[in-house]
Known about the structure:
This protein is 37% helix and 15% strand. The N and C termini lie far apart (69 Å). The strands form three sheets. Strands 3-2-1-4-5-6-7-8 form an eight-stranded mixed β-sheet, with helices on both faces. A six-stranded mixed β-sheet has the order 10-9-13-14-15-16, with helices on both faces. A two-stranded antiparallel sheet has the order 11-12. The protein is α/β, with parallel strands linked by helices. Nicotinamide-adenine-dinucleotide (NAD) binds at residues 10-16, 33-36, 39, 71, 85-88, 100, 103-104, 122-123, 155, 157-159, 262-263.
Amino acid sequence: MNEDRRLAVIGLGYVGLPLAISFVEAGLEVEGVDAHPGRVAELSAGRSPIDDIPDERLSGAIAKGFRVVGTDTARLADADVVFVCVPTPIDQAKDPDLGPVLSAAELIRRHLRRGQLVVLQSTTYPGTTTGPFRKVLEQSGFIAGRDFDLAFAPERVNPGDSASAARDVPRLVGATTPAATARAATLLRRINDAVVELSSPDAAELAKILENVFRNVNIALVNQLALLCERMGIDVWEVISAAATKPFGFMRFTPGPGVGGHCIPVDPYYLAWRAREFDFVDRFVELAGDINFAMPRHVVDLVAEALNDRGKALKGAAVGVLGVAFKPDVRDARNAPAAAILAGLAARGATVAYHDPHVPKFRDTEGVARESRAVDRLLADSDVVVVVTPHHAIDWDRVYGTAELVVDTVDSSRGRSTRERQVLRLGAGWSTRQ
Ligand SMILES: NC(=O)c1ccc[n+]([C@@H]2O[C@H](COP(=O)([O-])OP(=O)(O)OC[C@H]3O[C@@H](n4cnc5c(N)ncnc54)[C@H](O)[C@@H]3O)[C@@H](O)[C@H]2O)c1
């Protein structure tokens, strides 16, 4: 087998774009393919849509020959290896939607040639690579493991955390044959120091889901504890910090307004759906999802409670939401809990506005679009503000110095002097900090 030098990457988002650029920087020839014409246009013009890839790095890759094309002009047959990094969402019923993965497979099928390696990177349930994905590819007449190689290699990038994309973060890979696993691992070692070879694509798929289910379950655990602490009059944040002083056997997770992004709220449902195909109800995974999905509703209740303390109703009140991105310091607002919080507040008669320095426009779960307000105006116009995403770019001294009433869902008031009954904290009740 000759060395793999020409790659194609299908899907140029948070996962595919850094992968493609890393390979370009490692000296390989890369064609990036995306179905969205707007994405192709902005990338071709050197404008990066994601925080972790500065425009200069993208332009540098383009100068080194990185080509960005649409699906209609892709030259996949020229590639030795094709990576698939398209979204894996859930539908209204929270069942997996493999539409993008299968349409990428269909695109590859049309160009597939003997000797190619196809690597699926989208997070998905165990059995996708060797099941529906392989089925579409084999409609070409070629057989995986005999005519072409087929692997699954999950991604660990964590948007907003550049260390997560570093070379020393180990990468997993499992293919349909040991030789294909070794081939994919050799290629991935061009961009990663450590590549862990697994016995099958299924094991690699499940390992990735386990990583995300682990987070979802632990976040649900502390979210439940936060609700209990509110009833017991105990500060959950103090409790978690205390437990975290144990140097072994405990890992710190914190409660909050709910989970967001492309992975944590979505991936567990891929496993739960697949488990049901084996007559197995993964109650643990489903329960964790339900607990986390209920947190935005609880935040709305906290806002009503805070206003009630001032003799005001939520109906007719002006509520300002601070931060709508799904986590601090990123512009990614996919599946952000703020969408359900804004809609929930509006449904109960509040007038709602938000400020987010990273998200100029935002649509709530009812489809209502709003634009970010200037923070000073938001503070001046609101009866109560809700801290949802504690971006560092927000002047928190100003927020706590100005706002009459704050609902703090993320412990952003820690270390600040606050006035008596000014701050209602998720998981802790009224702040007594002076
Ligand atoms: N974002 C993360 O932090 C992260 C981390 C690990 C794994 N993942 C997984 O990686 C996969 C991709 O996620 P992402 O965050 O990069 O998504 P994304 O939405 O940022 O990017 C996906 C890209 O694929 C394009 N696309 C969609 N359908 C296509 C098709 N049929 N053909 C070609 N292009 C298509 C879209 O236009 C978009 O540019 C998902 O399965 C996700 O769960 C994401």
